TrEMBL record:
Organism: Salinimicrobium oceani
Keyword Kinase among UniProt keywords: no
SUPFAM superfamilies linked: Dimeric alpha+beta barrel, Winged helix' DNA-binding domain
Gene3D superfamilies according to UniProt: 3.30.70.920, Winged helix-like DNA-binding domain superfamily/Winged helix DNA-binding domain
The protein's name in its UniProt record: Lrp/AsnC family transcriptional regulator
Amino acid sequence: MEKLSPQDKKLLRILQENSKFDITDLTQRLNMSRTSVYERIKRLESEGYIKKYAAIIDEKKVGLNFTVIVNVQLESQQFEVTEEFARQVRELGEVMQAYVISGVYDIVLKVVVKDPEEFNNFVVKKLSVIPQISKIQSSFVMSYIKQSTELPF
């Protein structure tokens, strides 16, 4: 992959703010022709800088009012155990993000559901049945301080 030019970086920043862009606005902001902008976007996509485009949905508007950070401790940190856990977690629609971490716990999950009852059902019927888990600790999100999808480059 080539190094990003200043115009590439500017374009990526603009697309992070709103990927549903107006091409005329983009050409003016970047001081480039339409063809150049489209070619640059296609190159950034093909080189993997742009993974995909998505709409960011307001979870409360669709009835998902309960966000929980779940810390998971696995029985073992062996590669096979971690990979099998990861495979099963990828299939859980309620899990928005999952990270392998260092420290007391092995995994952190961000879970979004309708309410505490639905979260309880998620833990009892989906998460705790995964055999590799030895401990689960949950923290309920009271409010958001910051949520962003924009990378600071």
